[in-house]
Amino acid sequence: MAETLKDRVWDVLRTIKFPGMSRDIVSFGFVRNVTADAQAVAVEISLITQNQQAAADLKVEVEQRLRELPGVQSLRVDLSVELPMRPEDAAQRAVRESSARLIPGVAHTIAVASGKGGVGKSTVAANLAVALARLGARVGLLDADIYGPSLPLMFGIDSRPTVDATKNRLLPFEKYGIRLMSLGFVLDVDTPVIWRGPMVMKAIEQMLGDVEWGELDYLVVDLPPGTGDAQLTLTQRVPLSGAVIVTTPQDVALIDARKGLAMFRKVDVPVLGVVENMSGFVCPHCGELTPIFKQGGGQRTAELLGTPFLGAVPLDPAIVEGGDAGQPIVVAQPEGPHAAVFQSIARAVIDQVAQRAAERPALVIH
Length: 366
Description:
- The protein has 12 helices and 15 strands.
- The protein is an alpha/beta fold.
- Helix 4 packs across helix 12.
- The longest helix has 23 residues, at 337-359.
């Protein structure tokens, strides 16, 4: 069967990516409809984003690419943009229906991300969450790393979550003063997750909206590495207060960290700062510092990109042992030097979130 004009339009759309993202606009579900009547083509695109410039750039690219397609004489691209809901104060939330937002009781959502795997992002997310709780905040931790959930091991939980029968919602585990949810709680530890993008996006929405998070000051979200489906789902469905970028000092990690930082800025999510993990190894016998993965790269990257440097976490077997034993280092050694580092990072995050909230302009929808 000969390929129709409509088929060729869809083929072109599958090659166009949303600015800053790694997948095309068709697989993300942004393209709502395509019609091709004789030589007239009409495309309907619907986005949920705060980045109006990115939406405008996308429309320009779609129009340019489709006008170059042989057989297209007239073209209409209708692009609708819906702004993500932002956090509101308690009085405003009380008068809205509970279904208006996925997580109505959460004041601030903080994404912890990295450009590549293996930099200790989950370790930073876990200890940051516990450190925030030790400072008196009500904290939740969502393990959104669908393909490699590590929260069950890091918190020593090997049971299934229960369901609130009256609300038909999952009840998060509570440990070390924080509420916890992970896909790892509902899957066998050796079960691989072989899912395409839409299934990943749906799973994250369910772990946000189908969990009884309650009232939280901060929900820390441990994202998978990279800039794909999970990141886009979170930025579209939740009004993020900001993102923390985790990297190691080595050049290959810093390159990917810059990509992750650029992605959040592209979708208009504030970057709260950079954390340099595995910053250096301090010998327990002589006290000498050895920069195994170099040192200072995270701070230089933060300065270069104009974002705060939140702190440097040293490389220490105690951090690894604590995570493997179900006790993050902030719990295992609460008065130790590593806990002090994470407490400092937590205070910096609180300050950055408050500053960004104060700077945020009022939302006006025309």
